[in-house]
Amino acid sequence: MIKIREANINDAERVEYICKMTADEKSKTEEKAGKITSTIYASYYIEEEPDNAFVLEDDGVVVGYIVCAENYRSFKTVFTSVYSEKVKNLSKSAGLFARVLPFPYVIFGRKYPAHLHINLLPGYRSNGYGAEMIKLLEQKLRGKGVKGVMLMASKENTGAVRFYKRNGFEIIISAFGGVVMAKSLR
Ligand SMILES: CC(C)(COP(=O)(O)OP(=O)(O)OC[C@H]1O[C@@H](n2cnc3c(N)ncnc32)[C@H](O)[C@@H]1OP(=O)(O)O)[C@@H](O)C(=O)NCCC(=O)NCCS
User: Fold this and answer.
1) What tens digit of pLDDT does each residue of 67-96 get?
2) Structural domains in the chain?
3) 20 to 30 A from 72, CA-CA: which of 17, 42, 101, 137?
4) Would strands 178-184 and 148-154 be described as parallel, antiparallel, or unpaired?
5) For a substitution probing ligand 1, which of 126, 169, 180 has the most ligand atoms within 8 Å of its CB?
């Protein structure tokens, strides 16, 4: 049976695995590259804010997730002191990237304090689960009084950009092959 449920810390390993498996070829096949990717894009969220995450489960196995940092300031503080340090220990250049990664969230953070990442394994896409998970997260953030949510995506990921637009996000900036998209929750 397929269902969406609230996440918890025990989902960390599976969320990190899905993060790698939905990333670039190198992250899928090379252990170190995969570890860097999952530390940057998954570990903070599922370890520090599991209450702001939902998972898609098929017969008890997690096959997709939506994770979120509720507030850019706490994200930047913890991500920079803990997670970008872990990344730096794996690779100096990736550590530098991790160090600057929070800046777009800070720049747009007053209007859109939260940001999200969503990934489903291939067999589970285009069934409406992503849209449902976005709605659940928005409901949760609205309940906490969070006034907006943003995300970053690659311009080349036209399917994802279309998906976010359909779910009420708009592009607020487009640069260096990427887009920043955001949605007000007021
Ligand atoms: C993007 C994603 C979360 C959407 O969830 P979903 O459950 O597939 O979405 P829905 O069923 O609600 O809506 C379907 C839409 O999702 C998008 N989508 C479907 N498969 C996709 C894929 N492989 N890559 C990117 N977007 C995809 C398309 O816009 C699709 O609409 P279309 O059928 O008109 O093309 C999911 O497809 C996914 O995990 N894709 C791969 C990873 C990814 O790109 N994550 C976002 C990184 S910024």
Assistant:
1) 999 999 999 999 999 999 999 999 999 999
2) 2-184 (3.40.630.30)
3) 17
4) antiparallel
5) 126
* Cβ proximity of 183 and 149 under 8 Å: yes
User: What percentage of the chain exceeds 70 in pLDDT?
Assistant: 100
What is d(CA 3, CA 19) in angstroms, rounded to the nearest whole number? 19
Average pLDDT, the chain: 98
Q: How many CB atoms lie within 10 A of CB 57?
A: 19
φ, ψ dihedrals at 103, nearest 5°: -60, -45
Tell me which residue has its CA closest to atom 21 in ligand 1. 159
CA of 59 to the centre of ligand 1 (A): 22
With bands split at pLDDT 50, 70 and 90, how would you rate the model's confidence at 24?
Answer: very high
Three-state DSSP at 139 gives helix
